[in-house]
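ugh ok fine here u go
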Amino acid sequence: MKRLDGVEIGALIVLMAAIVLALLHWESVQRMLGYVLHDHQHAPVATTAAVAPGVSAPIASAPASAPTQLQLPAASRQLPSLARSDRDFGSAVSSLVGRKAFAEWWVPDHLILHLVSTVDNLARAQAPVAAWPVRPAPGRLQVRADGKAWVIDPANDARYAPYMVAIRMIDPARVVSVYLDFYPLFQQAWRELGYPKGQFNDRLLQVIDNLLAAPELDSPPRLVQPHVLFRYADPGLEAASAGQKILMRIGPADEREVKAKLRALRAELLRHMRAAASASTPMQQS
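structure:
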């Protein structure tokens, strides 16, 4: 019998651990594997600083900058560094959504970096949960049988009720005001995620437009289960971006409500933008 060396023994231990984890909670493991593959296959060639744990790297080149500039308010105080911004920015977010909602649903570490990473990923194929600035909805996707197929159960909508309460509290004007106050740090986070050119605000507008283009379904979508996780039976729905899939999962009524809030945020953002060619004061950058 061949004697196993240290490397082979270590590999066997890792394999057995993986099997045990898979048996205990395969859905979570599969999500994490997707995150790891997403993170390592598409890591940027170089970054200006270390990326916080759980933040995914970009999977494609940065979008071209639109010919617009944000009109930032005059700085009334010096911003903290990005690495030390969690307390100040967390306090600002708490004022927008309420202290209770912030404590229950928001992840208070690396807030701006996680926000920038997640916004970027929402228009892509995957938005790894490990990089979210908010905690995922409790429980699992609720489905029901429909003949020989599966569909999303309307009862699944209830999982997102706490998020909808927070979304209804959001005042677009106040959100954009906080965003503009902290924008230099959002731009710095965009750089640190591996985008040497362009403005994060341009990407934000692109992602909002992508979310607004999410299909609005008249009936629960049919699902297939080729392995463990469910997928949309319609290839067009399955090819939707991560953010569009989230909107389709929360139910048609909530989807319309979220889109209305996104349109209001987009309109408020555009009020603070102007053509770059006519701008007299350059936009602040990190």
